Amino acid sequence: MIYLTADPHFGHEKIIQYTNRPFSNAAEMDEALIRYWNQTIKPKDDVYLLGDLTMKGPEYAAGILQMLNGRKYLIRGNHDNYVDHSDFCSSMFVWVKDYAEIRWQKQKFVLFHYPIAEWNGFYKGTVHLHGHQHNRKEYNLKNLENGIRRYDVGVDANDMKPVSIAEIADFFLHIPIS
């Protein structure tokens, strides 16, 4: 199965207040996010992380990644500088990109850390998946109501865990293609 997520911000104490996450400290948050990830994702699943794993540097990033199930792909976010550090083993990801397009069961998806107003295939039913904004579930519901095929895969919009590509495809199933 394919899963997507964004913006876990492992080890980031201040993100708890910024986004009103239900944790008392970063250690508690990290433990919960790792648990939710591994309850959702099996070792052979593919996971697209749409940015902002951590701001804590290459050693911390590597330690977290080793605890997480799945084959991991990274779409760079604004807090993924650890990837460029000489101490980071980039083979922890299948690949690292700024942008990607994938297909799943004839559905095309555009992956980018940042939400954009229009994307490749916008008028042909392509779904844009992003993170960055730390939205709540209501954001995705509002996009659905407005016929906008854009979905925030971030943990803050998805009960603190990755979301499957099948769930996202089902979410948009009844929006007519223009």
Would you mind describing this structure in some detail?
It is a single chain. The longest helix has 15 residues, at 26-40. This protein has a 5-stranded mixed β-sheet with strand order 4-3-2-1-9. The protein has a 4-stranded mixed β-sheet with strand order 5-6-7-8. Helix content is 27%, strand content 20%. Helix 3 links the parallel strand 2 and strand 3 (71-75). The model has no long low-confidence stretch (mean pLDDT 96). It is an alpha/beta fold.
Could you give a short description of this structure?
This protein is α/β, with parallel strands linked by helices and 178 residues long.
Q: H/E order of the elements?
A: EHHEHEEEEEHEEH
The whole-angstrom Rg is 16 Å
Query: Could you name the ranges where pLDDT drops below 50 across 5 or more consecutive residues?
Result: none
How large is the count of helical segments? 5
Mean pLDDT: 96
Shape: globular
Please report the distance between the alpha carbons of the first and last residues. Answer: 29 Å
Which structural category do the helix and sheet elements fall into? alpha/beta
Strand content: 15-25%
The major sheet is characterized as: 5 strands, mixed
Find the count of extended strands (DSSP E, 2+ residues).
9
Helix content: 25-40%
Query: Which strands sit side by side, in order, in the main sheet?
Result: 4-3-2-1-9
Task: Give the helix/strand layout.
Blueprint lengths: L1 E4 L7 H7 L6 H15 L5 E4 L8 H10 L3 E5 L20 E2 L1 E6 L2 E6 L14 E4 L6 H9 L4 E3 L10 E2 H7 L7
Parallel strand pairs: 1-2, 2-3, 3-4, 6-7, 7-8
Antiparallel strand pairs: 1-9, 5-6
